[in-house]
Specification:
The protein has a domain at 2-13 and 39-62 and 123-248. Helix content is 79%, strand content 0%. The protein is built from twelve helices and no strands. It has helices at 2-10, 14-36, 38-42, 47-61, 67-89, 96-114, 116-119, 123-147, 158-173, 182-194, 199-228, 232-250. α1 (2-10) packs across α2.
Length: 253
């Protein structure tokens, strides 16, 4: 919906805006990956516990799948991708016209939006704003420790909050709605096993920080839509219209 609304507001192609949004998310993921490198160094004395909190749950989740099953699934996926590519790109195939007239122009527009970061003329400003945003994330994660009177009793500093915040972010990137459940589990495990926080305050912190973010996003998003003069029904209509306009713009004459 964000891409469709922005495309209509700014009169831009929907697929280009979508590509830019995806590029933004990729930048977030790369930034998280870079910052996660600092965690083993900050928790060097507890690497065995860190392994139990982060690595073991992942390996146990895939423990039921043998290497042969994983190879078979990967091979099947590659064959399916190759078959679809052959059907779309061969000139003598029925789907080739659909590929050249519809899919390829949309893909080119999406790629153009995705490559926005490479063409960005103010990369220094982008870097500074990215670091500033993550600095705000850190402060936002530390304030609840102070509010709940957890920082001093458990000796949680800003450096500790940095590790807790980054590990908790792994629960957000897991493909579940809004990180519900996964964020709480890894945050509670991090607090209790790595920082010796009691179970009850650790769970309180996880629920409070997760709920506060969701409520803030919902309230601020609704206010912005009202200030824009857009209802949810109209927003859905805008998304549909933006997609249709994009397809019409890329259709052959």
């Amino acid at each position: 919906m964000r891409s469709g609304n922005t495309a209509v507001q700014e009169k831009l192609p929907f697929s280009s805006v979508l590509g830019t949004v995806v590029a933004e998310r990729v930048l977030d993921m790369l930034t998280l990956a870079v910052f996660l490198v600092s965690v083993p160094f900050l928790l060097a004395s507890q690497l065995d516990v860190l392994h139990g909190v982060v690595v073991e749950p992942v390996t146990s989740a895939f423990g039921g799948l043998s290497v042969w099953w994983l190879l078979a699934l990967s091979s099947a996926a590659l064959l399916a991708l190759g078959g679809v590519s052959w059907l779309l790109t061969r000139p003598d195939r029925p789907l080739h016209g659909f590929w050249t007239s519809r899919v390829r122009p949309l893909f080119a527009s999406f790629t153009g939006g995705f490559m926005t970061l490479r063409r960005c003329p103010r990369r220094g400003a982008l870097l500074v704003s990215t670091l500033a945003i993550w600095g705000c994330y850190l402060i936002m994660a530390h304030i609840p420790f102070v509010m709940l009177h957890m920082a001093e009793p458990f000796g949680l500093s800003l450096v500790d909050t940095w590790s807790i915040f980054l590990l908790g972010s792994l629960g957000i990137v897991v493909p579940v709605p809004g990180g519900t459940g996964s964020y709480h589990a890894i945050t509670v495990a991090t607090l209790t096993q790595l920082f010796s926080v009691a179970q009850s305050p650790a769970a309180t912190y996880a629920v409070l920080t997760h709920a506060a973010q969701l409520v803030l996003y919902a309230v601020v998003g609704a206010i912005c839509l009202m200030l824009q003069g857009t209802g949810f029904q109209e927003l859905r209509e805008r998304v549909r219209r933006a997609q249709e306009d994009d397809e019409n713009d890329n259709a052959p004459d």
